[in-house]
Amino acid sequence: MQAAQVERILSGHNACCRYEHTSTIARRLQLSRSKVISPLNAAMMVFAALPPRSGKSPMQNSKRSSPKDKGRPGEAKGKSEKALIQSSKPKRSSTTSSGGVEPAALPAPAVASPRLPRPVASIRHLTSSPEADTQLKALDTVAIGPAASATEASAGLGELICGTAPVDYVAPGDLASKTSGEDFATGELGQDDDSDVEEDGFLVADGDVSEIGCQDPCQDDVQANTGDMATEEDAFPEIQFNLPNPTNVKVKTAEYLQSCVKVPDCPAPRFPEFAVIGRSNVGKSSLINMLTGRRDLALVSKQPGKTKCINHFLINGSWYFVDLPGYGYAKVGAQGRQQFDAFTREYFKMRPNLAMVFLLVDASIPPQKVDLEYANWLTDNEVPFTLVFTKADKRRKGVPSSARDSHVTSFKRSLLRDLAFLPPSILTSSAKGLGRGELLNFIAGLRVAFERSGRLAAIRQGML
Ligand SMILES: Nc1nc2c(ncn2[C@@H]2O[C@H](COP(=O)(O)OP(=O)(O)OP(=O)(O)O)[C@@H](O)[C@H]2O)c(=O)[nH]1
Ligand SMILES: [Mg+2]
């Protein structure tokens, strides 16, 4: 497949998408930043692409699994999550000079990651100059007004990625009656075990956590504060996608498909795919249950480290939701952590139908170094991601509810030390159903944008 052919196919499917080399885009952003930070400039560059690789994607050789291969997550193809991980372990190990045994290197990915056009969701600063530093410092104090950030960004992105509404939007209010929280809460929600909460990247004991159940009256408080946060968010240079407007999208069917630990074993990449990642226990599996309206589609536990595989769920027979193992949980052990991390990162780099990654960040605790590092890694590897702040309902004893908003704000501020523009962000609570409509709308819009980008068509035709 020649680069020119791919380009033609893609632009044929979405004539309004622009494909540019990422560094060109970033350079331009840097330029525009030195004058006036103009989110419009950022918005005009939604789709960035490195020249498409020639050759076939490893996905084409992947074993296809049918939705009939059912079972529980971790029991796919008759294997437990543990067995799947064991079988993927490297066989060789070498003896160190000191006589100890060091773990063998993890198997390298079969081929380099396919460089496919993907939506830009975050932009890194390119240079580290005194001028850039001054601009960065100014970021903390210079507010970019709502008109400049939201409206301009929306205008640009709207033209670029979405023309009409997706077919499966439903009327506003369709799901409104279900947002009590109880419908979507898993059995264990609100009983989060916070015995291991990371502070500044390290695992520390934390007994000072107030448990808040679904009935807690702080829901009003959450909603009231959401408004406050929106005002503050507008002050950040945040990339916003202008997706079609309907407020809700129905999840009619949601089924568990399979679990695996190697990218080539994932289901055939025939649908747009959305994946959740974040620290262990941040609420990834709970979010999937909340969004799909199923109590136990994904396995939830107050014990961190529950999810150990790449778990695929098929939604409405037309898109995939993927639950992944969390990072940062010390008790998994160094080798286990390294393995989860290796296949998860490989998945992000190699999965061609990945439309968006949701990076989950716990809004009830201060910014964590590991989360900031992960956001940077996703940016560096051109993986489009959206920040999803979780556990918005949760409060610690003696800590005012406004602390949550300040955690969200300081996370964004910290990220802005590395990134010139923030990815989109959504505040959620799986216990309360908060953010459900917003996230489902966002996914629906992205699916349409993704289809129009021509990526799926190219994948389906075996060209990517
Ligand atoms: N209060 C509160 N607790 C939550 C929320 N979301 C998840 N939890 C709790 O957090 C704990 C961990 O949830 P999981 O969904 O299993 O987290 P995970 O990120 O999938 O964890 P791993 O699979 O171990 O990486 C459970 O006890 C959940 O009940 C939320 O919105 N509010
Ligand atoms: Mg999980």
UniProtKB/TrEMBL annotation:
**Cofactor(s), by name:** Mg(2+)
Key word Electron transport present in the record?
A: no
Q: InterPro entries attached here?
A: G_ENGB_dom, GTP-bd, GTP-bd_ribosome_bio_YsxC, P-loop_NTPase
Q: Which GO terms describe its molecular function?
A: GTP binding; metal ion binding
Pfam families, from UniProt?
MMR_HSR1
Question: What GO biological process term is on the record, naming one?
Answer: cell division
What's in the keyword line of the UniProt record?
A: Cell cycle, Cell division, GTP-binding, Magnesium, Metal-binding, Nucleotide-binding, Septation
Q: Does the keyword Ribosomal protein apply?
A: no
PANTHER family registered for this protein in UniProt:
ENGB-TYPE G DOMAIN-CONTAINING PROTEIN, MSS1/TRME-RELATED GTP-BINDING PROTEIN
HAMAP family in the cross-refs: GTPase_EngB
Spell out the protein name for this chain.
EngB-type G domain-containing protein
Q: Whose protein is this, by species?
A: Volvox africanus
